[in-house]
Amino acid sequence: MPRRINPPKPAVLPEADAAKPPRPMRATKGAKVAAGASGTTGKGAKAPPVAPAKGKAAKAPASGTAKAAPASKASAGKVAGGKTSTGTKPAGKTAAPPPAPLPRRNKAVANAAAAVHGKTVSPWSDAEITEAFTRFEAQDPEPKGELDHTDAFTLLVAVVLSAQATDTGVNKATKGLFAAASTPAAMVALGEDEVAHHIRTLGLFRGKAKNVVELSRLLLERHAGIVPKDREALEALPGVGRKTANVVLNIAFGVPTIAVDTHLFRVANRTGLAPGATPLAVELGLEARIPDRFKLHAHHWLILHGRYICKATKPACSRCLITDLCRWPEKNF
């Protein structure tokens, strides 16, 4: 019998090799490749279609498995300046804001606190008031105001200029002003612009210059250029209030008036000597309680005490003559 010959079986590739895509042939040197046109590489072999890549090509991991896509845009955003590219803040601790600075206690606050305190204190006895002013008199028998002046007119002008200004600042400004004009007629002739130039270092100098020239004109018109010894007539002049009138009456004419400024107001309320919600209430309280023999110098003693000892922010209680009589609970030693 003739021998049967079985046909050869087709070769079967292993599964691992079958899964692999055919390896593209390397293009020969000098061969032209027209991607997307001819679809061939090398010697006519067709290249598998490749989808256009979006963005940067991702690197395949070493294990051969594909990287998982980001769950959301927020998680894929880059952190820049503490925020992701989508504008959301990354989780974590945030720096605490710096503490707000404590408010500074200025003169207005100190005076208001003194006025509130004055409503709660018991009044001084007559013996305590006499004792306090006896001590002031023993220390400074003839107290003087600190504004430079030569007569009633220059005193009046200096006091008008002292509103919201220090006596030292006023004295610097009036040195040149009084050299140029020391009488009402000379002040009117000098004019507002020149007066303003001399006092330009003071607050509200333009308004003050206008008041000084106008009060000088009214002194010439109504009082023959002489400062009147009358409260009502003084207060009728521009820039002259009750305090200014009291200072002029006291210093220029020796009238036992009490001029209540910011320092005296604070002292009267802090100590409990003459509490009052307004300067007028303090003034009337002092006039009613102070013995007559102390009244001429009383406001000088109290003003100087408030300016140098019973100061608004840091009272010097260790140098105070009346600390044992004072009702202020926040003494500073």
Structure description:
It is a single chain. The protein is mainly α and 333 residues long. Among the domains are: 107-143 and 259-319, Endonuclease Iii, domain 2; 152-253, Orthogonal Bundle (Endonuclease III, domain 1), CATH 1.10.340.30. The protein is 44% helix and 1% strand. Strands 1-2 form a two-stranded antiparallel sheet. It is elongated, with a radius of gyration of 47 Å. The termini are far apart.
CATH top level assignment of the domain at 152-253: Mainly Alpha
Please count the helical segments. Answer: 13
Number of strands: 2
For the record, the CATH architecture of the domain at 152-253 stands as Orthogonal Bundle
How much beta, percentage-wise?
under 5%
User: What's the SSE pattern?
Assistant: HEEHHHHHHHHHHHH
Strand order of the largest sheet: 1-2
The secondary structure category is mainly alpha
CATH topology of the domain at 152-253: Endonuclease III, domain 1
Largest sheet: 2 strands, antiparallel
What are the segments in which pLDDT stays under 50 over at least 5 consecutive residues? 10-20, 27-90
Ends distance: 139 Å
Give average pLDDT, whole number.
80
Looking at CATH, the homologous superfamily of the domain at 152-253 is: Hypothetical protein, domain 2
Helix content: 40-55%
Assign an overall shape.
Answer: elongated
Q: Indicate the radius of gyration in whole angstroms.
A: 47 Å
